[in-house]
Write a structure and sequence with these properties.
elongated; five-stranded mixed sheet; Rossmann fold; four-stranded parallel sheet; EC 4.2.1.75; uroporphyrinogen-III synthase activity; alpha/beta; Uroporphyrinogen-III synthase; about 260 residues; single chain; 4pyrrol_synth_uPrphyn_synth
């Protein structure tokens, strides 16, 4: 049986954007932890809007639109403006993206069983006839795995960048302060972008030696691979790629470590 407050006395860094951090913060608090919100990414409109308007203006010529994140859903409808009577079929990656889509009154026509690009596209291409036209709306840092696989399979996939991901200027000094003062016990990464921005900050301020005692948790394998590629030791990576599963696995990790006589404090 789990302790009432398994995260008591643990300070957990949340690196995702503040608009999407509410659920993770609540989960940490419910389990007795102290959430430290330092957003390592924020989102802006693309620099060059002409292509965006051109692609979205021709959306009726596509058979499918793919939305890869909650953020992608929000920016898609923001940029779409006056919504057309009927959109193409909509494919999403992940349950959170599906929920975000429902907020705009639309239901996803395709949701994969695995919430990463490789799993998504391996399932999705089996539904496509040769020559099917697909529009992939994504952020500037997203990989090209999906479009490449669709094109190789004989369908046509165009990509359009509908938002940019950047490091908030105000977050860097706050992060440096927390790291230098050993104020963080656990770091949660919810995307490769948060990992990259964190590591860039650590490198600029030469803070790598401060990370040895900190537990590293990643929401899924892509973020975990990014962290490992840059030398971070990932302690927690759940099988289900949600913040709820990540918090549950953090708790299990802590309990096992404490049972073995180790401690994070």
């Amino acid at each position: 049986m789990l302790p009432v407050q398994p995260l008591k006395d643990y300070h957990v860094l949340i690196t995702r954007g503040k608009d999407q951090a509410e659920g993770l913060m609540a989960s940490i608090k419910e389990n007795g932890g102290t959430p430290l919100l330092v957003p390592l990414l924020e989102f802006t409109l693309p620099d060059h809007m002409e292509e965006v308007h051109q692609r979205l203006g021709a959306i009726h010529t596509y058979d499918w639109i793919i939305l890869t994140s909650q953020n992608g859903v929000d920016y898609f409808f923001k940029l779409l403006g006056k919504q057309p009577i009927m959109l193409p079929k909509i494919a999403v990656i992940g349950s959170k993206t599906e929920v975000a889509l429902k907020r705009y009154g639309y239901k996803a026509d395709f949701v994969p069983s695995e919430f990463v690009a490789e799993g998504f596209v391996s399932e999705f291409i089996t539904t496509l006839a040769p020559g099917t036209r697909v529009l992939l709306a994504k952020g500037n840092l997203a990989r090209s795995v999906i479009a490449e696989a669709i094109n190789e399979a004989g369908s046509s996939c165009d990509e359009v960048i509908i938002y940019h991901t950047v490091l908030p200027a105000s977050s860097e000094q706050e992060l440096v302060h927390l790291i230098k003062n050993h104020a963080i016990d656990i770091i949660t990464f919810t995307s490769s972008s948060t990992v990259n921005h964190f590591l860039q900050t650590m490198e600029r301020h030469e803070l790598g030696a401060y990370l040895d005692r900190i537990v590293i948790a990643c929401i899924g394998p892509i973020a975990a691979k990014t962290a490992a590629r840059h030398g971070l030791s990932v302690d927690v990576c759940p099988d289900v790629y949600t913040t709820e599963a990540m918090v549950a696995d953090i708790i299990l990790f802590i309990m096992k470590r404490n049972t073995k006589g180790g401690t994070l404090q």
